[in-house]
Amino acid sequence: MKRSSVNAKKVLILGAGLVAKPLVRYLLGHNFNVVMLTRTVSKAENMIACCSEAEIPLRRDHPMGEAHSVDVTTDFDKLNTYIPNADVVISLLPYTYHPKVAELCIKYKKHLVTTSYVSEPMKSLDSQAKAAGIIILNEIGLDPGIDHMSAMKIIHDVQNKGGEIKAFNSYCGGLPAPEANTNPWGYKFSWSPRGVVLAAKNKARYLKEGKEVNIAGEHLFDDYATITIDKLATFEAYPNRDSIPYIEKYGIPTTETMARWTLRYPSWCKTWKIIKEIGLLDEAELNLDSITYRKLLSEKLNVKLELDVRQKFEWLGLFNDELLPVKKASYLDVFAERLLEKLQYLASERDMIVLHHEFIAEYKKGSLGFNAQAQYRQEKITSTLIDFGIPNGDSAMSRTVSLPAAIGTKLILENRISLRGVCIPVMPEIYEPVLDELEEIGIVFKESKEQI
To answer: Which of 43, 202, 329, 353 is deepest in the core (most CB within 10 A)?
Structure first.
């Protein structure tokens, strides 16, 4: 039976992971047709079941939503059947698939939205996307996404007053709310577990007081600082990928500091430094038939470990005589799966998003609002978002990642975005309406300014 409304625009969603539900519910609630493709079709069907919080939770379908079982890892060509019938495609697939999806969107002249970073293969498609008359809107989630948009709002405000940005540090983390921080790791999964583990292998680069700092992947967790945010908690902050390109992307060539940081609860960096050093992130496939955790990891863990780190491994059960659930996998696979099994939220627990910006803005004499006797003045600007998940409902991570993408998709469908090519949401045309709508649904920044 055909479920879609003939007159409504159609959105094709690829994937049905941890953050997809608010996105699906938003689009159905705004009367768009939604088609979901995923390996586990029951997950997508459950998301389609209700289009708003007000609807009866036991409803099993929705007249404008449908789900189909498609595994893009083995049958990517099936997308040629679905993309031509869509107005906008949203890819929630692993980021490595995005360029291939983008090529099909260019072929069929369909807009594409992702929440992932712009990779070099994606960036290379910019001129083709422009020629096809489509926008490929990336980095419209939380981090990247809301961080860009909230930063650009402040940057443009400073520049419109004649000021310059001299320093910018941005911090972001998805963590258990304080009362839900109940395990030795100080962490629970609200997004892709493999993504969290693989991110530990990243290298990093940032600008600090005019000097470029390069951090090799093996030293990522050596370079961290502590920061207390909004009297909420003290966190560790370690570098998040390559911050240098954002000097140009944000249009702040005058800045002497540009650094993006990931937030975690204390002892995270020490623990993950050891995890990397002992080889738990190795990706070579192993034969694990009839192997126990203790046997597999005895060599790795038979080193002198600090007591608190050893207790973390023991809590995970890595010293147990339990048989591994797979016959072939890598150390990384086994470790990531065990983390996922143990670091879960209870339905009644809340996760927490913390996004915090710190700017130093400089205003020279004669700029708007400057009436001091000195030749220039400096101002510290902070902007902080703290958002909590809903017990027995949506996580803060799923809301803050997927709702910006949903709103961006709506803007495209309503022809309110004229930009074309490979884009990120750093233009007022995108970030102003998205931030305004996020504020209406309770995702709000608190800002403060002080002269320094």
So the answer is: 353
CA angle 278/116/357 to nearest 5° reads 85
Cα separations (Å) of 226 from 263, 265, 268?
9, 9, 11
Which residues make beta-bridge pairs with 172? 262, 355
Q: What angle do CA 356, 359, 365 make, to 5 degrees?
A: 155
Look up residue 281 and give its amino acid.
L
Q: What is the pLDDT of residues 380-397, one digit of tens each?
A: 999 999 999 999 999 999
Q: Can you give the pLDDT at residue 7?
A: 62
pLDDT single digits (tens) 246-283: 999 999 999 999 999 999 999 999 999 999 999 999 99
First vs last C-alpha separation in the chain: 65
* All domains of the chain in start order, with CATH: 10-138 (3.40.50.720), 146-388 (3.30.360.10)
pLDDT digits over 195-235, tens only? 788 889 999 999 999 999 999 999 999 999 999 998 889 99
Spatial contact of 112 and 102, defined as CB atoms under 8 Å apart:
yes
Output the pLDDT for position 344.
93
Preceding omega of 245 cis (within 30 degrees of 0): no
Strand 204-208 versus strand 211-215 pairing type:
antiparallel
> Hey, which residues does 357 pair with through a beta bridge?
170, 383
Active site residue 71: no
Write out the two tokens for 228: 């207390």
State the catalytic residue, choosing from 143, 147, 351, 394.
Answer: 143
Paired sense of beta strands 135-137 and 111-114, if any? parallel
Please name the residues in contact with 450: beta carbons below 8 A apart, sequence gap of 6 or more.
379, 380
Given a contact cutoff of 8 angstroms between Cβ atoms, the answer to whether 165 and 257 are in contact is no
Per-chain mean pLDDT for the chain? 91
The amino acid at 444: V
Residues 6+ apart with CB under 8 A from 205: 212, 213, 214, 215, 239, 241, 242, 243, 244
Q: Report the alpha-carbon distance of residue 82 to residue 89 in Å, rounded.
A: 10
